[in-house]
Amino acid sequence: MLTNSFVVSLSTLRANPLRTFLSTLGIVIGVASLVAVLSLGDGMEKYFRSQIGETTDLLAIGLTARQTREVDGVNIPVDSPVVFTMADAGTLRAAVAPVATAGATAPGVAIATVDGSPRAVRIIASMAPLLETQGITVAAGRLFTSAEDSAHVVLLSARAARELAERGSMPLAPGDSVTLGTARLRVIGILVSTGAGDEKITAIVPTGIAPRVVASAASWSPAMLVLANRVEDVPAARAAAERWLASRYGPAWAKRVTVANRSERVAQAQQAMLIFKLFMGAITGISLLVGGIGVMNVLLAAVAERTREIGIRRAVGAARRHILAQFLAESVTISGVGSLVGIVLGLAGAYGITAVIRAHSKAEMYAGVSLSTVLVAVLATVTVGLAFGLYPALLASRLSPIDAIRHD
Q1: Rounded CA gap, 256 and 83, in Å?
Q2: pLDDT for the residue numbered 214
Q3: Which of 8, 175, 258, 334 is the most exposed, fewest CB within 10 Å of its CB?
């Protein structure tokens, strides 16, 4: 019965091509809007998340050893402050997986001698897993790896490559050597330039070699940095880090280690993403609603025009469920064909819009296409077809055979 209903619905729709086209057009527009908005929304969300990770510290959770404690309003040095080690970094990374990564990191200052004059170099000591998650990229060469956590290698900013070269020489490049502190380091990468206005003489070294590089090695101690994979993972990552601290230093760990992150800004970012998704969903819902109303209008007109046909079918033995199935099949057919065309047009529109955005701005945003987007579009259109086709189908199935045959 279901197969025959779809066969009859197709022949009926072909008999009124203009009306069928106009009704399908409403669904096409609705589905195209839905797919385009979902694809653009996924692309924008992915772009915003990458910007949050690269340009903000919202994903970062810092674990720092307390050097002082407060007694009667006065800060006094801690007797035996916590000293994190490379082994601690490994166990912490395992504790926060899979929602985050972790490693040892610390800032510092090194002294380099160039042409007989001392130069101050800002040092960032970091473990390899943190480099890419912090948006650190190289214009030439490569980043150091986990196997080089104690290797004599260094990454230089573009300005450091110029300033640390001898007078009259070319800027330092991968393969050259430079002395920082008491360590002779091999340059393996030049960082991407951030612009002359804010670029500093910066060197990034593995954490294991940092004590030989920084000027104040005696008091230098790394901190632990946890980087969540997503904004939503920040609370879980912080809870995992605190459990690790409790197992490592006991219930009184909070008196020895400070755990800090921008929890308020994280909550604001999460709320902004939720509002964005709800807003986009409301827009697409309106588009599909308009398309569904168009389908219902077409089917109501079909019921009025085919009243005599319905009466004859009832008179020769068609049950109410047969009539109901036929009109629902017509509604689903219109919605199904419209959804296929709409998906293609929506994806094309999303790719076109993001191409225009990239051409007129520096935002590297691309349409986000996923199986879930296609499934949502198909399920939404089938639901709309059934919902808006149900009333005309019920109206047709309840017609009295005698009255329907006498209808003029």
Answers
A1: 10
A2: 82
A3: 175
Using CA atoms, how far apart are residues 386 and 331, in angstroms rounded to an integer?
7
Alpha-carbon distances of 69 from 62, 73, 75, 232, 252, rounded to whole Å: 18, 9, 5, 33, 13
At a CB cut-off of 8 Å and minimum separation 6, what does 140 contact? 173, 174, 189, 190
Closest Cα partner for 5 from 404, 405, 389, 408?
389
Rounded average pLDDT over 100-117? 83
pLDDT at 2 over 80: no
Range 291-303 burial, b when 16+ CB lie within 10 A, else e: bbebbbbbbbebb
Instruction: For residues 399-407, give the mean pLDDT.
Output: 62
Q: Which two tokens stand for residue 21?
A: 């086209």
* Structure tokens, 205: 């070294």
CA 301 to chain centre: 46
Half-sphere exposure of 366 (CA within 13 A, CB side): 4
Residues in the chain: 408
Cβ atoms 42, 368 nearer than 8 A: yes
DSSP class of residue 274 equals: H
CA distances from 35 to 28, 276, 286, 376 (A): 10, 16, 13, 9
Q: Cα angle at 123 between 120 and 127, to 5 degrees?
A: 165
Which residues fall within 8 angstroms of residue 4, CB to CB, at 6 or more apart? none
What are the residue boundaries of the structural domains of the chain, listed by start?
A: 2-53+269-406, 60-261
Kindly report the backbone phi and psi dihedral angles of residue 246, in degrees, each rounded to the nearest multiple of 5, phi listed first. Answer: -65, -40
Q: How many CB atoms lie within 10 A of CB 195?
A: 7
359 Cβ contact list (under 8 Å, min separation 6): none
User: Where is pLDDT greater, at 295 or 321?
Assistant: 321
Pairing of strands 202-206, 117-126: parallel
- List the beta bridge partners of residue 135: none
